[in-house]
Amino acid sequence: MSKSKKKADKELRQPAEAGAVAKDGNGKLSGKDYDRELAKLHVELVKLQQWVVHKKLKVCIIFEGRDGAGKGGTIKAITERVSPRIFRVVALPAPTERERSQMYIQRYMAHMPAAGEVVIFDRSWYNRAGVERVMGFCSEEQAERFLFMAPAVERAMTESGIILLKYWMEVSDKEQTRRLEARINDGRKIWKLSPMDLESYSHWYDYSRARDAMFKATDTPWAPWFVVRSDDKKRARLNMITQLLKQVPYEELPREKIELPKRQKPHGYEEPNYPFKVIPELDWPHPA
Description:
alpha/beta; 43% helix; Rossmann fold
């Protein structure tokens, strides 16, 4: 790898500059400030949701990045307060034997948004440019053909009215190691660590080369890549959502004042003497 190439790779992996919000002693965003800022962004995401439905927009958001880069947490932050019927998350498993015989992008097309929908791909057709290429699940010829064809396919998507947003979550090698090691020792996260994660961990620079080739071929004016530096997860989520809101222009729709109607009178109704199976009400904290 050339000196200039190493420098570019290092710069891409540096954490974002500190913002104006308060930070804890480690230089990261405090939990209190994060919750406050995220709550504001959730309000805006609800406004965006209503605008998407009102204008019948079709929004497709792609999340790619290295293992442990924070894709899942960012998607959860986006979808936490919106409707799952409008913000749909697609995380496809490995292709079936039948799907492997199809045109490569075919199984993804079935999940593209209809009018009034936002579809979020937790990994996408860019599997071919990343994990499949690095781990040998496709040939170099197949990977190169994908990179050649993807811009044209994405142009057809955008010309059909789809708003296509592509985000690459970038994490440093040290932070990736810390996060993957944390998964090993945390019973809540062990499911996130697959045999493929362990096998791909040692291929850091192979993934760097695959990423660089992907950007060079598919970072287009109609479907550009946006890089989210994610060593600070909280700051990365806020930055990403803020940028997302700018990419889909929206307006707050007027709404009528909401008042709860009067509740009906019982008209003789009495609670039944039924042996409901009520779950135990424990004292907390409860001993393990």
